[in-house]
């Protein structure tokens, strides 16, 4: 437990509105001498869909429910039915609706990231120097890692390319 105090207090703060202060590999390197072999292995194999480990069942329920709700609302907007069964949650419905009505996909992703961080803060509340806190941090880092893949300029270029293709198709009708 004493090593957790040092480890967790030496981790840089994570924010949904800022870049990753460390990489996931750097995080794992910091954990190597401070956590059990079992915990280290779980951290090394952690994905956003993981369900085994402290906090992960709660997180997985939230994360899966949110993305199923997003898919259901997107399907409805396209006039299609959504076949997968899931437990509707008013919070997920509200978050998904806000993401769908965002002015662009990047803004939607940023909104989702903020709400996911808020959920993790709720799930880790009261845990400061234990596995729940550590896994909450790891998931946040994974979310930031995913977010860092989005490049505004590439997204705008792809949107322009797709829009030009649609315009070209319409003009050729």
Query: What's the helical proportion of residues?
Result: 55-70%
Number of discrete domains: 1
Report the strand count: 0
Order of H and E elements: HHHHHHHH
Tell me the span between the first and last alpha carbons.
Answer: 69 Å
Uncertain segments: none
Q: What structural category do the secondary elements indicate?
A: mainly alpha
Q: Give the percentage of residues in beta strands.
A: under 5%
Number of helices: 8
The major beta sheet can be summarized as:
none
Give an overview in words.
Helices cover 66% and strands 0% of the residues. The protein has 173 residues and is mainly α. It has one domain. The longest helix has 22 residues, at 56-77. The radius of gyration is 19 Å and the shape is globular.
State the gist of this model:
66% of the residues lie in helices and 0% in strands. It has 173 residues and is mainly α. α5 (90-100) packs antiparallel against α6 (105-124).
List the helices and strands and how they pair.
Blueprint lengths: L1 H9 L13 H8 L5 H8 L11 H22 L12 H11 L4 H20 L6 H17 L4 H20 L2
Organism: Mogibacterium kristiansenii
Protein name: DUF2764 family protein
What are the key terms here?
mainly alpha; 173 residues; 66% helix; globular
